[in-house]
């Protein structure tokens, strides 16, 4: 059994890694999105390279986010037969408690991102016991083990991955490629000289090679392939 100490964020962080992800209850491969219906009726969707463990008992329902990003949609409202046990998402930095809602959670290095699409959640950081912040629909934030940042507004990019899309709105090329890199195996790099170029568009995640092939039509760049899994985006005029 997973005892009370084992659900602490500190232990979760210490066991996070490839081995734990491979042994998780639910997981997705690189470039894959998967959906699951849990025993209580909760809908769980995993983004690329994600893994979670479930710890449901008589008193609570706890989802431990081992790696990656998830969307959680709970049953709520009149006639929904909602489960009365609290639903919690545990990350390395703290806990997100569902208040009857739909929300996304992403585990980043030393911080967690949360975005609420419906209703609300309550965030508790690991290093500030008793201190919480309620996040409402249309709000998103990040938190560390010590603090929860002030919320900002969600946008279409927030849950685009749940529709198999990658959205860019005047986004820096290096930031765009860093996000794209999550969805493909191997290595994706950008020449620093063009890192600040900006692009906008809606890109289908089902074919990341096609996204890269599209870049030269919208920016003065080209893709330099060393192997099938090693690509660098360089200036269009760079010597071949």
Automatic annotation (TrEMBL):
Superkingdom per UniProt: Bacteria
Q: Which InterPro entries match?
A: FecR, Ferrdict_sens_TM
Organism expressing this protein natively: Pigmentiphaga humi
Kindly provide the name given to this protein in its UniProt entry: Fec operon regulator FecR
Record-linked PANTHER family: PERIPLASMIC SIGNAL SENSOR AND SIGMA FACTOR ACTIVATOR FECR-RELATED, PROTEIN FECR
Where's the FecR protein domain? 25-122
GO molecular function annotation: sigma factor antagonist activity
Entry's Gene3D superfamilies? 2.60.120.1440
């Amino acid at each position: 059994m997973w005892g009370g100490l084992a659900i602490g964020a500190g232990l979760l962080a210490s066991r996070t890694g490839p081995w734990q992800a491979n042994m998780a209850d639910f997981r997705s491969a690189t470039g894959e999105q998967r959906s699951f219906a849990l025993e209580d009726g909760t809908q769980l969707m995993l983004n690329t390279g994600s893994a979670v463990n479930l710890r449901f008992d008589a008193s609570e329902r706890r989802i431990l986010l081992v790696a990656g990003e998830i969307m959680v949609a709970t049953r709520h409202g009149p006639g929904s037969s909602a489960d009365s046990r609290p639903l919690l998402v545990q990350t390395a930095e703290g806990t997100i408690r569902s208040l009857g809602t739909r929300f996304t959670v992403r585990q980043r290095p030393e911080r967690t991102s949360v975005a609420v699409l419906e209703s609300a959640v309550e965030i508790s950081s690991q290093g500030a016991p008793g201190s919480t912040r309620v996040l409402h629909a249309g709000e998103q934030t990040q938190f560390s083990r010590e603090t929860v940042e002030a919320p900002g507004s969600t946008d279409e990019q927030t849950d685009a991955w749940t529709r198999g899309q990658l959205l860019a709105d005047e986004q820096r090329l290096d930031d765009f490629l860093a996000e794209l890199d999550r969805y493909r195996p191997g290595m994706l790099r950008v020449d620093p000289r063009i890192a600040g170029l900006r692009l906008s568009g809606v890109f289908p995640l089902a074919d990341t090679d096609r996204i890269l092939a599209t870049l030269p039509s919208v920016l003065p760049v080209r893709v330099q392939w060393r192997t099938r899994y090693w690509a660098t985006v360089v200036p269009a005029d760079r010597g071949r």
